[in-house]
Amino acid sequence: MKKIQVRDLDLFYGEVQALKKINLDVEENSVLALIGPSGCGKSTFIRTLNRMNDLIEGVKIKGTVLLDGQDIYKEVDVIELRKKVGMVFQKPNPFPMTVYDNVAYGPRIHGIKDKKKLNEIVEMSLVAAALWDEVKDRLHKSALGLSGGQQQRLCIARTLAIEPEVILMDEPTSALDPISTMKIEELIDELKNKYTIIIVTHNMQQAGRVSDYTAFFLNGELIESGPTDRVFYNPKDKRTEDYITGRFG
Ligand SMILES: Nc1ncnc2c1ncn2[C@@H]1O[C@H](COP(=O)(O)OP(=O)(O)OP(=O)(O)O)[C@@H](O)[C@H]1O
């Protein structure tokens, strides 16, 4: 099933066109990797999927983005949209509060006050983010005392706590060491059973390891997309081949 359908999407920062006629479908319960050289529009594209670009002045967007068949720019409330489409950023950005409060933050904002219910959500989210065993004895200590890799998994737990359907990840491991990176990659593999995941990565090996589908961007255009094995081993476009084999970028 198609979870997201993007049709003829253009995005302008003032006069500069950063996305050009993007057409792309995202399958439910799959991992899509967005690859391409610096400045080609990957982050801009991922941000159009939960309307994060709305916050930037001078941005103009044309075309449609459908989530479960609904136009997110016309038919969906932004608060509802952000609940359905969670985001994890490049640098782990836990709030300066306890581990527990970080995870409980979203559910509390959405009106959950019951202590027992919150305890349940916090534990479930930390288990799902493969962090529970490492933090269960320090739930009420500051999240800033965790390692970078633990902080990133905490940010994933914080995202899971609001029960999203889609998770956007913008280079989630680029600030992490190899072992933390491996843990996040294993986690992505687990999470795709339940969620639809879109990940921006500069790391070809990572795209190859974690994704089912790959989309290659260049200068604001989507050059090609398809099953990762096909795009990697049998690219249709010469530019995709050149990028994947490291000839530029
Ligand atoms: N807030 C902004 N205002 C104006 N131009 C922007 C803004 N954000 C990005 N751009 C421009 O849009 C283009 C695409 O940038 P974007 O960050 O989406 O690329 P990217 O592929 O994610 O790059 P990287 O891999 O380096 O993160 C670039 O030319 C960039 O300079």
UniProtKB/TrEMBL annotation:
Its Enzyme Commission number(s) read: 3.6.3.27
Q: How does it sit in the membrane?
A: Peripheral membrane protein
One record GO biological process: phosphate ion transmembrane transport
| Cellular compartments annotated | Cell inner membrane
Domain ABC transporter, residue spans? 4-244
Q: Which PANTHER family does this chain map to? A: ABC TRANSPORTER I FAMILY MEMBER 17 (PTHR43423)
Q: What does this protein do?
A: Part of the ABC transporter complex PstSACB involved in phosphate import. Responsible for energy coupling to the transport system.
Q: What is this protein called?
A: Phosphate import ATP-binding protein PstB 2
